[in-house]
Amino acid sequence: MKCGRIALLSLALLLQACGKPPAPETSTRTLSYDLLMAGTGLAEPLPLVEFSPAASKQPATNVFSGRLLLATDSQSNHFDLQVDELNFIELDRPGMQELPPFDFEFIQSGDLLVPLRQGPIGNQHNWWEFVLLPGRVWDEDSDNGFSRAALPFALKERREDCIHNGLMSFLFSDDGTVSKVAFQLSNQTCRYLQFEMRGLLTASYEPGNVEGGADAIAEIVANQASRLPQWPIARLANDYPGSNSEEFGSIEEIDPADMTVFGLIIDGVHYVGGCNTAHGTYPYCDEMALPSSSVAKSLVGGLGLMLAEKAYPGTASARITDNVPECGEDWNTVTIEHALDMTTGHYDSPEAHVDEDAAIVSRFFTGEDHATKIDFACNEFPRKSEPGERWVYQTWATYLAGTAINNRMRAIEGADADFYADLIVEKLWKPLQLSSLIHATRRTNDIVAQPFTGFGLTLVRDDVAKLAVFLGAEDGRLNGEEVLDGKLFDAIKQRLPDDSGMQAESERIRYNNGFRSFDVSEILGCDNPTWLVTMSGFGGINIVLMPNDTAYYYFSDGNVHRFLHAVRESHNIRSMCQ
Predict the structure, then answer these.
(1) With bands split at pLDDT 50, 70 and 90, how would you rate the model's confidence at 331?
(2) 286-324 pLDDT, tens per residue?
(3) 54: DSSP letter
(4) Helix 303-311 / helix 395-413 crossing angle, nearest 10 deg
(5) Rounded CA separation 533/509 (Å)
(6) Long-range contacts, stretch 208-214, CB < 8 angstroms, 24+ apart
(7) Which of 112, 273, 287, 363 has the fewest CB atoms found within 10 Å of its own CB?
(8) DSSP letter (8 states) at residue 47
(9) Other beta carbons less than 10 A from residue 256's beta carbon
(10) In Å, how far from its chain's centre is CA 112?
(11) Handedness of CA 495, 498, 499, 505 (dihedral sign)
(12) Virtual torsion, Cα 1, 469, 508, 240, nearest 10 deg
């Protein structure tokens, strides 16, 4: 039985198949009927197994359909700040220790609890947006006729990409009676801000028909049924004798306390690891929300340009000044591809990451409207060299590329066209059967709603695996059909000697079309250049596509970007030398 194909499995069977720790019997629950109905708080953090079905669970006798509302004004909350590198706690901006407003519709199908909206869900909260994911419903003997629900969720930082995963649980009945909602956040994907939060929140339940509920259920079930076959990483040695699974997510490279999830994809199978927290294994790892950070530069910027060039030839070589009127004559020889390559010639420092780390860039990252961001991208840095001569890492250059692609597409297709929704989602994400989370990207908070391009995606780990197969083993093809511009794609794979990209952080690293390529021939002892294609994100996110048609990824929060243990072990399984 493959752990990834869960549409028709009960959660108990899924946990058993995936080797997860057993859930408690109902008689031993800390999160008991009495606590949920009449408790005043959660004095101590709960083992996360409290939010998963008990071994003696039964099919739900009640059916949830309607609105769930929570009083999220910090009542009964405990907030434990662990890391605050940017001194957020000192800012006069309330709300960091509170959940945002919660008023959402859910519908149940069997033991599946489906949120009608999945995130990130915008609001006016100072700090957080909710990301909602599918949960589970079941019965336990000690719950006095009520059904018990568990709901994975996450808080995503407004304006930024950091995600904090948590769990909710509550009791409900068909007549609209609902217990308090216990919640706990215990999982981090953020380098600069880490905390735990927990509490009991007063809730109300308004039963009723959920318009669009059937479609939401069908979408979730279809996505779960389409997931790649999945096994725990420890099984790798059984399937590939002589391999060492401990080299993936190696503790010699990543501190286990910093690791969120990791995986290896080989021969169409997804071997998974991680999902450990300070309070036990996260019980819904397939539904854990993951940030993209700068991985979006590849997936939105890079793939967006490849799709646009395929649909509208000449997009890559189109001039910035012809497509972004806010940029002046200093940009008259800069192309969209130059901006995506971060070789615009506009910078303060010629050193690779100095501009990105400067204090002034906070205006770009905190600005919520398009006018602020595009003014910064066009006008903040003077022209100091010819386009294509020097690589300087700048997130706003990728934003500029996305703006130019969008404006050019609108000039061709009409004012309502959107390069993210119409090209990337429709032409790639939906055919790849990715989760609905990735169908949305962070945008400016105005009528323009410009996709950020350089960051802002939310994924689950099956999305990562499917994208890795598409870009790696499938070589950018859908059902054998080339859907990306072949020349731009060949360039990131280092197949074009006259377009190898610019040297990035070292002599062995090239940056081209939003992707890095890394020559590991010397490390592996290969006679010829041996290129990995990599996507990296702030804080410790890496997706590595290897020339032996395997892929490795991890999401962590220790600001470490190391993966050579995994690369060597993949080479041990199947040679990368060509």
Answers:
(1) very high
(2) 999 999 999 999 999 999 999 999 999 999 999 999 999
(3) -
(4) 20
(5) 10
(6) 208/65, 208/66, 208/67, 209/65, 209/66, 210/65, 210/66, 210/105, 210/106, 210/107, 210/116, 212/116, 213/65, 213/105, 213/107, 213/114, 213/116
(7) 363
(8) P
(9) 12
(10) 22
(11) positive
(12) 30
Of 356, 429, 424, 347, nearest to 389 by C-alpha is 347
Q: With bands split at pLDDT 50, 70 and 90, how would you rate the model's confidence at 2?
A: very low
Q: Which residue has the tokens 């690293």?
A: 509
Task: Give 224-277 pLDDT, tens digit per residue.
Answer: 999 999 999 999 999 999 999 999 999 999 999 999 999 999 999 999 999 999
What is d(CA 20, CA 281) in angstroms, rounded to the nearest whole number? 8
pLDDT for 6 equals 30
Q: Phi-psi bin for 444: left (phi > 0), alpha (psi -120 to 50), beta?
A: beta
Which 3 state secondary structure label does DSSP give 431? coil
- What is d(CA 576, CA 386) in angstroms, rounded to the nearest whole number? 37
Measured CA to CA in angstroms, residue 44 lies from 78, 220, 398 at distances of 9, 34, 44
What is the spatial distance between Cα 27 and Cα 187, in angstroms, rounded to a whole number?
27
pTM over 0.90? The answer is yes
Q: Map tokens 């036990």 to a residue.
A: 280
Token pair recorded at residue 228: 């790649």
Strands 112-115 and 102-109: antiparallel
Which amino acid is residue 125, in one-letter code?
H
List, as one string, the DSSP characters of 160-180. S--EEEEEEEEEE-TTS-B--
Distances (CA, A) of 210 to 104, 106, 149, 237, 414: 10, 7, 18, 47, 34
CA–CA distance, 551 with 89 (Å, rounded to integer): 39
Report the distance separating Cα 467 and Cα 292, nearest Å.
13
Task: State the virtual CA torsion across 486, 492, 498, 500 in degrees, nearest 10.
Answer: 180
Which residue, 281, 306, 374, is CA-closest to 515?
306
Q: Are strands 276-277 and 280-281 parallel, antiparallel or unpaired?
A: antiparallel
Residue whose entry in the numeric block shows the structure tokens 């009960």: 10
Rounded Cα–Cα distance for residues 378 and 121 (Å): 30
Q: Is the pLDDT of residue 20 over 80?
A: no
Q: How far apart are CA 564 and CA 519, in angstroms?
A: 12
CB crowding 438-470: b at 16 or more within 10 Å, else e: bbbbbbbeeeeebbbbbbbbbbbbbbbbbbbbb
Residue 380 is encoded by which pair of tokens? 């903040």
Cis peptide upstream of residue 24 (ω within 30 degrees of 0): no
Residue 314 tokens, joined = 């000449």
Distance of alpha carbon 7 from alpha carbon 227, whole angstroms: 10
Read out DSSP for 94-118? TTTTSPPPEEEEEEEETTEEEESS-
- Say how far apart CA 534 and CA 515 lie, in whole Å: 6
Nearest to 4 by CA among 216, 260, 286: 286
Integer Cα distance of 136 and 112 in angstroms: 5
Q: Are strands 269-274 and 477-478 parallel, antiparallel or unpaired?
A: unpaired
